[in-house]
Amino acid sequence: MRQLPSAVAAACALLVGAAWTLQPTVALSQGVETPDRSEATRRGSLPPHWSVLTQYCTECHNTIDWAGGIAFDALSPARLADDSEVWEKAIRKLRTGMMPPPGEPRPPRAELDGLARSIETRLDQAARQHPMPGSKSLHRLNRTEYANAVRDLVAYDADVSTLLPADDAAEGFDNIADVLGVSPTLIQAYVSAAMKISRWAVGDPAMPPTLVTYDVPAGAAQREHIEGLPLGTRGGIRITHNFPLDAEYEFRVAAGTGFRFAGPAGGPPPRLDITLNGEPVQVPDPRKFRLRVKAGPQTLTVAMVEQRRWEGVDELYARAQPRRDDVESVSINGPFNATGVGDTPSRRAIFSCYPRMPEEETPCARQIFTRLARLAFRQPLSPGDRSIEELLEFYEQGRRSGGFEVGIQRGLARLLASPRFLFRAETERTDVAPGTPYRITDVELASRLSFFLWSSIPDETLLSLASEGRLSDPQILHQQVRRMLADPRSRALVENFAGQWLHLRELHNAQPLDRQFDDNLREAFEQETQRLVAYIVREDRSLLELIDADYTFLNERLARHYGIPNVRGSYMRRVSLPKDSPRRGVLGHGSILTVTSAGNRTSPVMRGAWVMETLLGAPPPRPPPGVEADLKEEPDAAKARSVRERLELHRTNPTCASCHAVIDPIGFALENFDLIGRWREKDGANAVDSTGTLVDGTRVSGPQDLRRALLSRADSFVTSATEKLLTYALGRRLEYFDQPAVREIVRNAKRENYRFSSLVLGVVHSVPFQMRARRSPADAAPGETLRQASANPSAQKKDFE
Asked: Do 326 and 233 contact (CB within 8 A), yes or no?
């Protein structure tokens, strides 16, 4: 056997076997055939293109070298399904071009794709005969789902970021059941949040004044008009505040540092434009004033009157830098002198009836809680359901102390803290053996569907169809998916799914050391990518447009940053892009380029890793222990004049070269973009070198070539996106046995040019989404805990007193 160089051996181990561990069942010597293999050969059951594996892969991955812990010569080609976990990982490496490793002989791509396809065919056939839908842990609502469920249940938008802690994430998402743990502190936080929300939603005349402050981001530039604020203004803030009662409220506006609305040299204070629900507000002193406001959500805007374009002395003051009269914050304190609870959207959602006489109070309360509990618990309830009686117990307790509405507050608080509301529990069948797959009920399907597409509870239409047993009808299910995608609530797919998949949420924490970067640009970056995804979802476009859209969404500030002419104004609009534009698709978006940069420079490694993990579904392995990843620590780093030169020095270490040979060329192709996404031709005094050779031998030079290379592997990109979509939809990690379902979704979507709806419908109709397997008794224990909590409300009553 030919001895491999150490760097190649390391590449095999790192790129193929980072997560692969397989203990051989039979130790085989090279060249010795097992009875199974010779029998398979005689039957002609070897998969097509099998010779590619034996010629190019087994020289490293055999029972002697064990590169990456894999020995293909110990696996039977006649029984691929027996080792499907290993073969699924091999397919991923072949499909993304990561194998054979750099420097090793490589067959034509058609042969590698043919081998992958033949293995996939065998595994998919076995999966159709023996489906494995998997199962998951008890699933708690995360913070976002809780807020959306409250919004859709009682029409109240609660700022849960001040009420509940942030959730842990896994597989890139914060809705994964395994990491959504429960602790006494968290349960207490849910109880406290439920009590506050019920009081705000119902309205409490005895409510004391509360101060709420809305801050303008410290890094926001207020030199220009901001979209959503009145024309003729600059800077400022737009807020929607829930006023709890019909009452007076005190407003305070802070601006500047030290001057507090005293103009330069003691001149007149700057002019403020204040509106409430679009109507101008005239007050003697804009720094502090009182207004009588009706209860409910009201929109307030506060901005500076634009004076820079006026003729005369105002222009002189406007040019002074820095501006010290920009709006900093708006505080709202109240209620004062309340006259009533008002007619709010939340009261209309809660009070489906209202008693006129004392004897009508309890029947009305029963009607209210029966309707709300059905929606909150996502299932039909029988007239004698114990949960209704429990809510009425809390209602009676509150009614005795404060009357009918206080009783409704108490009952609603108990409902919002109920385990049946907080947890997405599914019935565990006991008439089948552990591991046996079965279909979930229509009611459970409705809940899965609504949390997938809306991150919220099912609406009345969906729940009614499920209660009638009609939702599982493929035609009706198809219609409901189309309806839900057209609903504004499907924006949750943009904010929650795409925001986490594309790492957009990381943009909020980015602090690049560039004087041109501010919060206005940050917001424009985020809106550009969000609007692209939203357009693909709303217009049912091909998912490939994420890679090569011939349009983007810009305002004047972002267009100026990109060097795109003829875009005026603060509002975002769709702008067509020429064929050779580097801004086509997310590879040219400032949001992605910023979150994949270091604080003071670009990072080809971060950008290359982002493309591999996010777009191709092939995350690179982490650096081996003891390897220095900081480029500043490289020998002779001070002599290197560019990031590329420092990385080339880094690759002189054979241990590092094996990984960086895969990652770096992708990142080099994006080097014409600086750390905040501006186009550049030079890195300091040196010309930018954006050339490189991808691991499959493809030469690239710049983002256009990289984009074409990704489109040439469109199936890999869509497969990766589908895996992320299915992970998000199921709320659990995908396993090797889920891959046949992923491939079926991708195959069906390809017939429709990967339209977004085809991927969503594929997920909804898939085996993992519509089925589950019975868990072992040990795995089912959390469900028993939930049932006990639901059946024993007396232990929780003290929390509401």
From this structure: no
- How high is the pLDDT of residue 25? 31
Cα distance between residue 576 and residue 596, in whole Å: 25
Q: Chain-centre distance of CA 245, in angstroms?
A: 35
pLDDT number for residue 336:
96
According to DSSP H, which parts of 47-108 are helical? 50-56, 84-95
Picking from 252, 164, 269, the residue whose alpha carbon sits closest to that of residue 214 is 252
Helix 756-764 crosses helix 474-486 at what angle (to 10 degrees)? 130
**How far apart are alpha carbons 142 and 154 in whole angstroms?**
18
Q: Which DSSP letter does residue 796 get?
A: G
Tens of pLDDT, residue by residue over 43-85, are 346 677 777 777 777 777 777 767 767 777 667 777 777 777 7
DSSP string, 352-416: S---SSGGGHHHHHHHHHHHHHHHHTTS---TT-HHHHHHHHHHHHHHHHH-HHHHHHHHHHHHH
Q: What is the pLDDT of residue 504?
A: 95
In which region does residue 163 sit, left (phi positive, over 0), alpha (psi from -120 to 50) or beta (all else)? alpha
Quick one: pLDDT at residue 790?
Answer: 44
Q: How far is residue 106 CA from its own chain's centroid?
A: 37
State residue 639's pLDDT score: 52
CA distances from 7 to 68, 451, 645 (A): 13, 47, 20
In the chain, which residues have pLDDT < 70?
1-46, 65, 68, 73-74, 97-98, 102-103, 256-270, 308-324, 623-641, 647-658, 777-801
Other residues' Cβ atoms within 10 Å of the Cβ of residue 789: 18
Per-residue confidence (pLDDT) for residue 384, from 0 to 100? 78
Contact 641, 630 (CB under 8 A): no
H helices of 539-653, in order, are 545-548, 556-562, 590-595, 604-610, 643-650
CB 692 within 8 A of CB 647: no
Tell me, what amino acid is at 498? A
Q: Count of CB atoms within 10 A of residue 509's CB? A: 7
Three state DSSP letters for 684-730: CCEECCCEEECCCCCEEECHHHHHHHHHHCHHHHHHHHHHHHHHHHH
Burial state string for 459-473 with b = 16 or more CB within 10 A and e = fewer than 16: beebbebbeeeebbe
Task: List beta partners, residue 291.
Answer: 249
Residue 503 has what pLDDT?
A: 96
Cβ-count burial of 273 within 10 angstroms (0-12 exposed, 13-18 middle, 19+ buried)? buried
Task: Report the C-alpha gap between 345 and 351 in whole angstroms.
Answer: 10
Give the C-alpha separation, 279 to 254, whole Å: 21
DSSP letter, residue 300? E
Nearest to 18 by CA among 81, 92, 123, 72: 92
Give the DSSP letter of residue 344.
-
Largest CA distance in the chain: 98
- Distance, in Å, from the CA atom of 709 to the CA atom of 717, rounded to the nearest integer, reads 11
Instruction: Provide the residue count of the chain.
Output: 801
Backbone angles phi, psi at 195, to 5 degrees: -65, -40
Task: State pTM to two decimals.
Answer: 0.85
Helix spans in 555-603 (H):
556-562, 590-595
- Beta-carbon contacts of 464 under 8 Å, excluding residues fewer than 6 positions away, are none
> What is the C-alpha separation between 208 and 409, in angstroms, rounded?
16
Amino acid identity of residue 568, one-letter, is R
CB atoms within 10 A of CB 8: 18
What pLDDT is attached to residue 423?
96
Question: What residues does 292 pair with on adjacent strands?
Answer: 248
Report the run of H or E that residue 494 belongs to, with start and end.
none
User: DSSP letters of 495-518?
Assistant: IIIIHHHTTGGGGGG---S-TT--
Q: How far apart are CA 234 and CA 509, in angstroms?
A: 25
**246 DSSP β-pair partners:** 340
- Kindly give the pairing relationship between strand 771-773 and strand 437-439: antiparallel
Tokens 């007239």, residue located: 383
